[in-house]
Amino acid sequence: MEKRPLIELRHIYKEFPGVKVLSDISIMFYPGKVHVLLGENGAGKSTIIKIISGVYQADKGDVFVKGEQVRFTNIKQSQQRGISVIHQELSVIEDLMVYENIFLGREVKKAGKILNKTEMIAEAQKLMDTIGIHINPKAYIRELNNGEKQMVEIIRAVSQNSEMVIMDEPTSSLSEHEVKALFEVIQKLRKENVAIIYISHRLKEIMEIGDTLSVLRDGILVKTLPVAEVTENQMVTMMVGREMKQYYYKARGCKSKEVVLDVSHLTRKGEFEDVSFQLYKGEILGVAGLIGAGRTEVMRTVFGAEKPDYGECRLYGKAYHAKSPGDVIRRGVGLIPEDRRQQGLLLEKNVKENTSLASVSKRARKGFVDFQWEKNASLEYIKRMSIKTPSEKEAVKNLSGGNQQKVVIAKWLLAESRILIMDEPTRGIDVNAKSEIYALMKEFVENGGSIIMVSSELPEILGVANRIMVMREGKVAGFVDEEDAAEEIVMSLASVGSE
Amino acid sequence: MNNKKMMVQSRNFIKNNTMLFFLILLFVISMVFVPRFATTGNILNVLIQISINALIACGMTFVILSDGIDLSVGSVAALAGVVGASVIKLMPDAGVAVSLVMILLTSLVIGGICGCINGFCIAKLNVPPFIATLAMMNVARGLAYVATDAKPVFGLPESFGFVGLRKIGPIPVSIILMVIVLMIAYIILSKTAYGRHIYAVGSNQEVSKLTGISVMKIRFSVYIISGFLSALGGLVLASKLQNGQATAAQGYELNAIAAVAMGGTSMAGGRGGIVQTIFGLFVIGIINNTLSLLGVSSYWQTVAMGIIILIAVIIDQYRK
Q1: Where is the ABC transporter domain positioned along the sequence (chain A) (predicted)?
Q2: In which band, very low, low, confident or very high, does the pLDDT at A210 lie, cut at 50, 70 and 90?
């Protein structure tokens, strides 16, 4: 029986300034099928979702819903056509009850204005019974665990008579048990003839729940095929099997074996467990893993922004118990955080003030800012790192992502850091700026510095790192040396484990 | 093309200096409607009237720039006033120097203690600034009543009035004090690393923390500064009135916040400064003065003040 697709994308193109995000994407999504989108970060999965739900509009190409051409310009329009998106970050309101969340914004009323609570509660109960979830409609969201919260979101989606439910990495914050429950719900939705788009990096899950698979790579659709016809290994190959671009700069990776940072048995309950690794002088240590593997949390703890439950860190042989990042910074470590806009930069402040922020106090004379030094230093780094800015007095919020990131790096170079922890240093940055940042990293380590680079982009890790640590579910899954590094090895360590 | 550019530039200039234009406009209007406004005597009057609020608003600027708020300033001022008056009363023969030392010491002790408690609760215990200082507002006011049994402390030595009532040459001492405090505050905020860190913490605490700034110390310290300057303001007030009363400085927190906000310092921290606060102080001072000269009752002045605060904040929102 040839069914009609619920949603069809035809030759979709999308470009952001300087980056082609999607080119010539044509996919059909059928009712009653779980359609998996697979690809590395930046492959274009979320852009596809955003085009379907109306957050973005395609530059070229058409979207059809049940054969009818549509052009959504906001989320509301797509919702009215029965499309709901469940985002990775939960969007339920903690201080409202389950049924209030389900009916938020479209409350059932009686006599015009008064809320009909009885009916909403009954309706919520009915919805849960059909799907087979057992949550008290009158429980507060804050009393639920993550899995249950996710279920509430799903029920909210279903209660809007959604014909399509899009799930963006729904399992990234769920325990194994919760994942099972989620899958049961997905099975029921499938029986109800709902079309499901499912995004996940976890290959095992995809094998278990997916019907159809579309693999994306660099904005191009590699292939759409039934899940039953592929193996996990084939998925990995399809996802990463690209020719390496020649824009990486690999440092020599001096084999001095002088340990600068020694982390042993570091643990923060619920985040990561028994993490041990060493960083050598003059190397770039890549840290690979899926989102939620605990990489960022480990780095923040090493940096002193969080306190470990157990374990020890040593810098240049000396153990430290940092009360705050200041203690670690004074020992010569700098952090380039994963979210530069919220954690790395004072957006309203200018390039000069951001560059000098970590050293202004050290360089102050009797507490007074040395304005001459500050100006000269910022001009020097603008020149040295070719930061594109009208002047040192420009607010950093007006700079492009790549130039913003250079300002964050300049801040630590000016503070004379010897170790840089870089968390997703090139996220959201165009190709050119990426390449410049790799070059800076190479220069830094070849002058005796050391870098830990957390990245979710495998080609980047393989292209830049001298050694790779792979993390999975809060634990170190293994180390891979430069010579042995291959995408398949790292990917399988990150998603399947070493067994 | 050139014209267009000039228009954009001038629009930006107006946008960035709204308060300056507002102030000039206010000045002109006052001069037109109130002939007596632009006399030296009256201008000095305006300055005297804003001098106490200036001290308190100065501390408030530090707090607001760090993304906090201090509601306890009026109560701390009253407490410092009654404590200072009670102490100086024990020294009927005190000279000017002794009086000044007493004023400074009382400000440091009372303001310091109240500020430390605020700072500790906010920076260490993570109590929201609004709540912590609201509590202090009640505690300090209550203590002022308890300490005096709600009776004004009269019979102070004449030297106690030096700061509030006397002049050095033609210029009242309270104005000189205000200028000194504003200048020091300006220098701290715009020229020192500490000042830079206050702006950083107010802009984004997470960024500041990850850059190695001790967010805790910065947040702690601004409440101590605010406490000290509020207490100093309270003592100048006591000196001016020649008594200490538990009921003094009612609503001063709002005047101080109004001056800071009206100048254009962001209530979310990180943006603004002493210059803006000075604008705010003048706007409030001139409006009150002009309305008084026009014979508008003080009740209506309060109404006008409320409306003006609102307008100022709306302008601030619009500017963003």
Answers
A1: 7-243, 254-498
A2: very high
Span of A67-71, A142-146, A195-199 with lowest mean pLDDT: A142-146
Chain B residue with minimal CA distance to A330?
B212
| pTM for the whole structure | 0.79
Write out residues 210-229 of B within 8 Å (CB-CB) of A: 210-214, 216
Gap from B75 CA to chain A (nearest CA, Å): 32
3-state secondary structure chain A: CCCCCCEEEEEEEEEECCEEEEEEEEEEECCCCEEEEECCCCCCHHHHHHHHHCCCCCCEEEEEECCEEECCCCHHHHHHCCEEEECCCCCCCCCCEHHHHHCCCCCCEECCCEECHHHHHHHHHHHHHHHCCCCCCCCEHHHCCHHHHHHHHHHHHHHCCCCEEEEECCCCCCCHHHHHHHHHHHHHHHHCCCEEEEECCCHHHHHHHCCEEEEEECCEEEEEEEHHHCCHHHHHHHHHCCCCCCCCCCCCCCCCCCEEEEEEEEEECCCEEEEEEEEECCCEEEEEECCCCCHHHHHHHHCCCCCCCEEEEEECCEEECCCCHHHHHHCCEEEECCCHHHHHCCCCCEHHHHHHCCCCCCCCECCECCHHHHHHHHHHHHHHCCCCCCCCCCEHHHCCHHHHHHHHHHHHHHCCCCEEEEECCCCCCCHHHHHHHHHHHHHHHHCCCEEEEECCCHHHHHHHCCEEEEEECCEEEEEEEHHHCCHHHHHHHHHCCCC
Partners of A419 in beta bridges? A333, A450
Residues of chain B positioned with their CB less than 8 A from the CB of A369:
191-193, 195-196
Contact A335 B210 (CB under 8 A): yes
ipTM of predicted assembly, 2 dp: 0.86
Q: How many CB atoms lie within 10 A of CB A66?
A: 14
Residue count of chain A = 499
Residues of A in contact with B209 (CB under 8 A): 305, 324-325
Confidence of residue B319 (pLDDT cuts 50, 70, 90): low
* Best residue of B197, B198, B211, B319 to probe chain A, by most A CBs closer than 10 Å: B211
Q: Report which DSSP code applies to B158.
A: G
Say if the Cβ atoms of A345 and B212 lie within 8 Å: no
According to the model, what pLDDT value does residue A463 have?
Answer: 87
Task: List pLDDT tens digits, range A322-376.
Answer: 889 999 999 999 999 988 888 999 999 999 999 999 999 999 999 999 999 999 9
- Residue among B192, B204, B271 minimizing CB distance to A369: B192
**Cross-chain Cβ contact A324/B214 below 8 Å:** yes
Any idea what DSSP says for residue B192?
B
Residue B204: closest CA among chain A residues belongs to which residue?
A: A346
CA distance A290 to A172: 9
Express each pLDDT in A302-319 by its tens digit: 999 999 999 999 999 999
